[in-house]
Automatic annotation (TrEMBL):
It holds the Pfam family 3HCDH_N. Belongs to the 3-hydroxyacyl-CoA dehydrogenase family. The keyword Oxidoreductase applies. The record marks 142 as: Important for catalytic activity. This is 3-hydroxyacyl-CoA dehydrogenase NAD binding domain-containing protein. Residues 188-284 form the 3-hydroxyacyl-CoA dehydrogenase C-terminal domain. It comes from Stentor coeruleus. SUPFAM superfamilies: 6-phosphogluconate dehydrogenase C-terminal domain-like, NAD(P)-binding Rossmann-fold domains. InterPro entries: 3-OHacyl-CoA_DH (IPR022694), 3-OHacyl-CoA_DH_NAD-bd (IPR006176), 3HC_DH_C (IPR006108), 6-PGluconate_DH-like_C_sf (IPR008927), 6PGD_dom2 (IPR013328), NAD(P)-bd_dom_sf (IPR036291).
Length: 288
């Protein structure tokens, strides 16, 4: 492991865990995964272990890969432990105030030359970057699907983002063997701007009784060639996350196509969050 540079990842939820896996499996970096909650780090380890064991059972990796990935990851509840990182990736929950506070806090922890990437899906990168003393080093790194599954990454420029930062982000993305698309700081960037309105409209069609959810998903899968239909995708992403993102898009754009459908709001209120909770628009009780 000597000679590898450090990548700091903040937030040990599913997205942060998968980001840590993705970076670690490149075998080019030491990953420091940080979360203030010990419980989140324990859950992260179990989640990662289960995913890797499933890959082994499918013949996608072997035990040498398994141990290599884990050997490249260390965890901590101390945010100061990421101070040597050449790149820090923020993967905390999609709440603007929390992200702003974190980015501001990092100014006193990491070097001014450290690349700072945020994985926001729906918040203004320009607003987030403005909370840093050095907003030129902040860029967006948005995976539409899960980081380990996504084939393409959106690299997002805020108004203050320097060309040097974008070039560093491109080079980092290429070490992860991902394709990339460059985009500017508009609500939803490229993929989510289109897909979340698509999801919202599909939920609306189901709520109005246009068709059953399975028929909506089957039709869209057939037309687009996607692996998941829009309602299945919402369950996979997490209905709470879909709802929060739609609220942010609606607030930023004023466009009612992003106004969350009342049925989605009710499902989240009921705790039906999709696959991760065992029930969403589909029932997953027998698969978790």
């Amino acid at each position: 492991m000597k000679g590898k540079s450090m990548i700091g990842i903040i937030g040990a939820g599913n997205h942060g865990t998968l980001m840590a896996m993705l970076v670690a499996q490149s075998n080019k970096y030491n990953v420091k995964l940080v979360d203030t909650a010990e419980e989140m780090l324990s859950r992260s380890h179990m989640y990662m272990e289960n995913l890797l064991l499933k890959r082994i059972s499918k013949g996608l990796i072997d035990y040498q890969d398994y141990y290599s990935i884990f050997s490249n990851i260390s965890v901590s509840t101390d945010i100061n432990s990421i101070s040597p990182s050449e790149t820090v990736i923020e993967c905390i929950n999609e709440h603007q105030t929390s992200k702003i506070n974190l980015i501001s806090q990092l100014d006193s922890i990491i070097s001014q030359n450290t690349l700072l990437l945020t994985t926001t899906t729906s918040l203004s990168l320009t607003k987030l970057a403005a909370s840093s003393d050095n907003p030129s080093r902040v860029a967006g790194l948005h995976f539409f699907a899960l980081p380990t599954a996504s084939k393409i990454v959106e690299i997002v420029s805020g108004l203050q983002t320097s060309q040097e930062t974008i070039q560093k982000t491109i080079e980092f993305t290429e070490t992860l063997q991902k394709s990339y698309a460059l985009c500017q700081d508009f609500p939803g960037f490229i993929a989510n701007r289109i897909m979340f309105s698509f999801i919202n409209e599909s939920i609306g069609a189901f709520a109005m009784g246009v068709a059953e959810r399975s028929d909506i998903d089957k039709t869209i899968r057939s037309i687009t060639g996607m692996n998941l239909g829009p309602i299945e995708m919402a369950d996979e992403i997490g209905l709470d996350f879909v709802l929060e993102s739609l609220k942010n898009f609606h607030k930023e754009t004023g466009d009612d196509k992003y106004k969350p459908n009342p049925l989605l709001v009710n499902y989240v209120s009921a705790g039906w969050l999709g696959k991760k909770s065992g029930k969403g628009f589909y029932d997953y009780q027998n698969s978790i």
